[in-house]
Amino acid sequence: MGRKSKTRYDVTSVVPSPDIIWYPHEAIIVTFRYLVLTMAAAGVVCGAAALIYAWQPAIAPIAPLSAASFDPALVRRGAELALLGDCRTCHTAADGATYAGSLAMPTPFGTIYSTNITPDPETGIGRWSEAAFARALRAGVDREGRHLYPAFPYDHFTLTSDADVKALYAFFMSRPPVKATAPPNGLPFPINMRLVLAGWKLMFLPQGRFVPDPARDEQWNQGKYLVEGLGHCGACHSPRNLMGAEERSRGLAGGEAEGWHAYALGAASRSPVPWDETALSDYLAHGFHPLHGVARGPMAPVVENLAAVPRGDADAMAHYLASLDERPLDDSAGVSPVAGSAKAQAAAPARPGSLPQSAGAQVATPKAANGTGAALYAAACASCHEGGRALPLGGIDLSLSTALRSQTPENLLNVVMQGLPAADGVTGPVMPGFADVLDDAQIADLAGFLRGRLAQQPIWTGLEVAIRDARTTRKLALRSATQNIQ
Amino acid sequence: MLTLDINGKSQPIKATPDTPLLYVLRDELGLNAAKYGCGLGQCGACTVIVDGAAVFSCVTPVMALEHRRITTLEGLGTAEAPGAMQRAFIAEQAAQCGYCIPGMMMRAQALLDRDPGATDDTIRAELEPHLCRCGTHMRILRAIRHAADELQATHAVVGAAR
Q1: Which of A63, A243, A417, B85 has the fewest CB atoms within 10 Å around its CB?
Q2: What whole-number distance in Å separates Cα of residue A223 and Cα of residue A285?
Q3: Which among A376, A431, A484 is the nearest to B64, CB-wise?
Q4: A308-317 per-position pLDDT tens digit
Q5: How far is Cα A396 from Cα A422, in angstroms, rounded to an integer?
């Protein structure tokens, strides 16, 4: 920007009158005046243009609709789509009514509270027409014309088809209305100015419905539509730039969510055993897979939601996700060299007490395992993780763990500390947490041993800080678990 | 040789460092209140308090516990002079077979030590990791409420007298 202005308003571009004596410093002053005036003018024009661009009209309120006015089949499909979109997960506070909002969402920019999407006429969306609902979902503008923050993933929802918007609208408008107003967002200036979001959208919101790829079959297209649209997988699984937008060029290459690392999907996955379509489908539908482990952290509610939708939707998502990594399974490029042996071992019936054969002969052995870490593993972990029972009754063979091969230790630390609490009404693996048993140094020793010995990777840097962060993540999880019961 | 601080007493331990605390308590020290239920940290019968937090002693190797303060149910009182939590469980007749009760009492004690004003909802949430097959859950909750109220009343009187 600076360089551009300099060229444009360079001394040479200001032609002096022949009847005055020209001094270079005057040229600079004149140039500076020109610059200021031009910039001010440009500012006014741009500001006006931005205001016109950013301004969105209100959509006329409607009279509240009766829940019975919607076709039950449409409402049912809407319910499935709402589960696929994880609407409940963000629009329900830990101690609040379903879809009534007020969940605090910490973002790098400040705290944002989800809104009430029950059809309450005063505090919810009871006066929203279908057009207003569609605009909010796809363009991130509420009925009154205010821009919504992209914590609401309209950059994905914009792909949603007319038919699906209609079904979602029918579902939400037939929920019991709840009177609830979210607390004001805790955002600093200038991000608290919603007009700013128009600029963000200009850069980062590619509006438009999903366009199927005619070269692919219907299931692949349905899967891509759900993964990139309502499922908004990239909201967690894609890296974000400094302005909080997903880096489209690195879609699904791994991201962050609430103190957890959302693993890279597709070819960039670090799973020792490459994911295939069956494994993905089972994992999405059941929340765990014997060769890959357990969905936990912010992925736990996602699989809980998916468990309640027709299996065909999870199958389609799995079909599409599997296509993102279409290398033959034997292709070792980018896949851990132990993957083959791990897979073979996992396929073979495990014997009680058998040791994991994780040390691939072709991998350089890292420095000798720490004594305390090895001893803690043997005493506290091995009885389940080497018990020879497959998930969900036994622990996963940790040589198959993606967490141990991840760039950062946060997922391993979160599971070691929090464990895997029993989920209500769901069959799944359970693990006790060790946060109160092991101190920071012991956890560092254990993590170092697991990473070096079972994943054959160099110890993570910054492990001590990560352990302190994981204790904070646990405290937040405990708080929300307590509130959930209330 | 390892030394553990158990119920305020320094105890030399003969067991190897990888031995779970539960085995040391029961087999070596004769402290039989903590029970072996599942051995997997999934039922809560073996719960003891370590530095104020409830932990499963069956999956806690003693090597992790040097210089830590361990409290077992025996540390809350004796049959002759039961502590507030134990008196409350007796008063509400909260045990049927009683196998899960020591663990329940320990987690409840850790909760009330940390949060004397714990609400019924907090108590329910906190006790979630504990299983009881007899089904005395409602009595257990009443007993913990009873203990909480008694402790609160004691605090209030002590506060007023100060």
Answers
A1: A63
A2: 14
A3: A376
A4: 999 999 999 9
A5: 16
